[in-house]
Design a protein that fits this description.
By secondary structure, the protein is of the alpha/beta class. It has helices at residues 13-24, 56-64, 80-85, 87-107, 141-160, 194-201, 230-245, 263-274, 298-304, 313-332, and strands at 3-8, 29-33, 47-50, 67-73, 112-118, 163-169, 171-173, 209-212, 224-225, 227-229, 252-255, 261-262, 280-283, 292-293. α2 packs parallel to α4 (87-107) and α6 crosses α8. The structure holds nicotinamide-adenine-dinucleotide.
């Protein structure tokens, strides 16, 4: 049996882009996803099984049927606000269900696991840009669940000899660029991320964008974030897999561009790319939003050889806009 890569959560936004990158690079892959927030029409790469991490038998059948050498684990609940309102959902799916996955990895002698972690594990920065050695004190349940899995992975690695790596993404954005995009992009529901929300509001008099906080201690008073193109994230997973295969032992890498853009700068860029106005409603700060989150990804550059190809904000937003336009077309055709 040829060794395969398992993409857990591969029907979602980042997982589907990584599945595409794996297939383009010639890897055999299998997606496992319960389609809770993923999409059947994103299952375009490799084979797939619709199953839930909650179900050990479904996992067992998935692993027994193939030789999985590497697991890339994207499946999680990801809405920070929801994690505050309903932490049980997050502790159950993002932690308890991961025990099932890790047990299957141990049973079926998976060699390496690459985990989708997040800059939300750092909490409020004390030093910027954030390096991997910055203390991790997450300020919401979502971030705490992600940090707990980082710890679980280290313990499983230590005890069972698995090779593991947590990739701490900053703000994922964009979509596989046209004309090569096979029909995948950011389709979260409800959408909570700034760029897709801005693009959905562009030129639409019935929609507006809430700008939370205009009195931060930043250059224009709005929050500053580090946006990273989803295809660059996907590429980092392939590099991390090769790194672990060749004996690399770092357990965490930041994935960001190292450059921060304020909410107003993102909105200006979105208006420039679309040529359309975006109606903004200024609102109070949201609790738990740090003023600035910018990552130092030099460890990934040096040790993984990772260099983002779509580092500038305009190309990130252009690819997201092309995707939004194709989504509108899909909806108008009733697909
Ligand atoms: N989107 C971002 O900006 C961002 C930033 C940092 C980290 N992350 C992390 O990256 C990962 C992917 O995020 P995304 O934006 O692609 O989210 P997404 O919701 O688009 O994808 C998650 C996928 O996992 C699947 N899934 C969830 N629970 C499952 C379960 N119990 N069993 C099987 N499948 C399950 C969903 O159906 C979905 O296809 C998440 O782990 C998230 O925490 C995302």
């Amino acid at each position: 049996m040829t060794a395969q890569v398992a993409v857990i959560g591969g029907a979602g936004y980042i997982g589907s882009h990584t599945a595409m990158a794996l297939e383009s690079a010639g890897y055999e892959l299998a997606v496992f996803d319960n389609l809770s927030t993923g999409h059947a029409d994103f299952l375009r790469f490799g084979s797939h099984v619709v199953g839930d991490l909650h179900d050990p038998q479904a996992l067992d059948a998935f692993f027994a049927a193939r030789k999985i050498k590497t697991v890339m684990h994207f499946a999680a609940c990801i809405d920070v606000g929801e994690s505050v309102r309903d932490p049980a959902k997050y502790y159950r799916n993002n932690i308890a269900n991961v025990v099932n996955l890790l047990d299957a990895c141990h049973t079926y002698e998976v060699e390496q696991i690459i985990f989708s972690s997040t800059c939300a594990t750092y909490g409020t920065p004390t030093v910027l840009p954030l390096t991997e050695d910055h203390p991790q004190y997450p300020v919401n349940p979502y971030g705490r669940t992600k940090l707990a899995v980082e710890w679980m992975l280290r313990d499983y690695a230590e005890a069972y000899g698995l090779n593991i790596c947590s990739l701490r993404y900053f703000n994922a954005a964009g979509a596989a660029p046209h004309p090569l995009n096979p029909g995948i992009g950011e389709r979260h529901s409800p959408e909570t991320h700034l760029i897709p929300l801005a693009l959905k509001a562009a030129g639409n008099p019935e929609k507006s964008l809430h700008l939370f906080g205009t009195d931060y201690d930043t250059r224009d008073g709005t929050c500053i974030r580090d946006y990273i193109h989803v295809c660059d994230l996907a590429e980092a997973h392939l590099l991390a897999m090769r790194y672990l295969e060749s004996g690399g032992r770092r357990t965490a890498f930041n994935l960001g561009n190292g450059q921060g853009y304020s909410v107003r700068e993102v909105l200006d860029c979105a208006q420039k790319v679309t040529g359309l106005p975006i109606r903004v409603i200024e609102a109070a700060r949201r609790p738990g939003d740090p003023a600035v989150l910018v990552g130092d990804a030099s460890r990934a550059a040096v040790e993984l050889g990772w260099h983002p190809a779509y580092a500038d904000l305009e190309s990130i937003i252009q690819s997201a806009w092309d995707w939004e336009l194709s989504e509108s077309q899909r909806k108008s055709q009733g697909e």
